[in-house]
Amino acid sequence: MISPDAATPADWPVRADEAARSVTRMFGQRLFFLPGTHIAAIERPSGRLMNLRRPWHYWWQAHYVDCLVDAGRRELAKGARFDGGSRPSAGRLASQLVTGIRLRNFLTVVNNYYDDMAWLALSTLRLANLAEQTRKPGARRHARIRKSLTLQFDSASTDDLGGGTFWSTKRDFKNTPATAPVALYYARTGNTAKAQALVDWLHTKLFDPAQGMYQDGLRIGPDGKVVLEAAIYTYNQGPVLGALLELGGQPNLDRAASLVDAVSRNLTRPAILASGKTAAVLRCDGTGDGGLFTGILARYLALAAVDGRLSDRTRAVAAALVIETAQALWEGRRTVGTDEPLARHGAHLVFPVYPETPASGSYPAGAAVELSTQLQAWMVLEAAAAVWAIQN
Question: What residue ranges define each of the domains in the chain, with the CATH number in brackets?
Answer without folding.
Answer: 12-391 (1.50.10.20)
